[in-house]
Amino acid sequence: MTALHIAWFRFNDGVTPERIEKHLAACRGLVGRVPAVLDLQCGANYTDRAGGMTHGIVVTLPNREALPAYLDHPIHIPVGTALKADVAELRVMDIELP
Q1: What secondary structure letter does DSSP report for 50?
Q2: Rounded to the nearest 10 degrees, how much is the dihedral formed by the CA atoms of 48, 37, 66, 54?
């Protein structure tokens, strides 16, 4: 079963749009470099329905067992660490698709 790793977040005040785009580009750059990642989409929220969260990422993995391989991959770790340093609030959900 395919799995989705979904993150919603809000950047700290003062993080520039250029820095935000650099984070998103780094996330997009994980596709093809982290074997567990089948697809990755990310971007800015455009509605008021996300409870103040401003951006999101959806990572498609081949199955739920691939999540640790993604999270612990040496290419992912610095991308995630840098992103978290500029994030004020983060929510994560992992789901399996039938």
Answers
A1: S
A2: -20
The angle formed by the CA atoms of residues 80, 54 and 92, to the nearest 5 degrees, is 50
- What CA–CA distances, in Å, run from 50 to 8, 26, 71? 8, 23, 24
Per-residue confidence band for 37, with pLDDT thresholds at 50, 70 and 90: very high
Q: Count CB neighbours of 7 within 10 A.
A: 21
Q: What global pTM score does this model have?
A: 0.94
Specify whether the CB–CB gap between 35 and 75 falls below 8 A.
no
Question: Beta strand 55-61 with 87-96: parallel, antiparallel or unpaired?
Answer: unpaired
Contacts of 9 (CB under 8 A, 6+ apart): 53, 54, 55, 56, 83, 87, 88, 89, 90, 91
Q: Which domains does the chain have, with CATH numbers?
A: 3-96 (3.30.70.100)
What is the DSSP code (8-state) at residue 64? G
Contact at 8 Å (CB) between 50 and 1? Answer: no
